[in-house]
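Students often ask why we bother encoding 3D structure as a string. The short answer is that it lets us treat folding as translation between two languages. Here is a chain of 269 residues written in the first language.
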Amino acid sequence: MNRIEARMKQLQEKQEKAFITYMTAGLPDMEGMKAIIRANEAAGCDVLELGIPFSDPVADGPVIQAASYKAICQGVNLKGVLKEVESLRAQGAEIPIAFMMYYNTILYYGVKAFVESCVNAGVDGLIIPDLPFEEQGELKAALLEAEKEKGCETPILIQLVSPVSAGRIPMILKDARGFVYCVSSMGVTGQAADFHKEIVNYLTKVKEVSPIPVMMGFGIRTAADVKPMKDIIDGAIVGSHFINLLEENNYSPTAAEEYVRTFKKELNM
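And here it is in the second language, the structure alphabet:
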């Protein structure tokens, strides 16, 4: 079973909420990145969303844009990140890892080659905000082909929905795996808990039709931010705030571990 799906199953059995963090790959450097990933794992983070730096991250706000630019200036690229994830796996890391990235990077790498590299490295999921449901065929086919050829688990494609997805939600989630990423606001990441005015109604509708756990992301800083939605969602995703926290604490693994441990505890109180 895929690591993400296995973790979601464990959480459901324990009736616990999932906590997912996002960090930009390659910051402060590759060794520092791996130390922070290990800190996330030690603190009980359920899925680590690893952002692949890209020159035009259209779904991201200023915090993640700046982090992506910094990583690119340091020479971080997809091949290098794949190598480091493979190294983490060789060292025993079992935390589920999902790449958050833009489709142009995959096209440039080569879809089939990309899937094969992800399998070899131990990547568990893919979150691609600029890849509409109707355009996912080539990537899905490559994932299925690799699964048949290698006889092993391949990364799962995590589906995103937003407050304007409306009637498309049942179609998008029909064969979805892992969890559904519910964008909580209109616009980019990092909007400081400025959630859509119909957030509760929207999340309720997603929960009613979703066969998989429902995660809420965009603009979340603390567990208190999602308290009004706690009975609906199955977990929360923190990105921009986590990056700010890392930068403010000089990318301290200890600070990362303390934040994750506290959020996870408060989310499940």
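Translate back mentally: The beta strands are 18-24, 47-51, 97-100, 125-127, 156-161, 180-183, 214-217, 235-238. Keep this in mind for the problem set.
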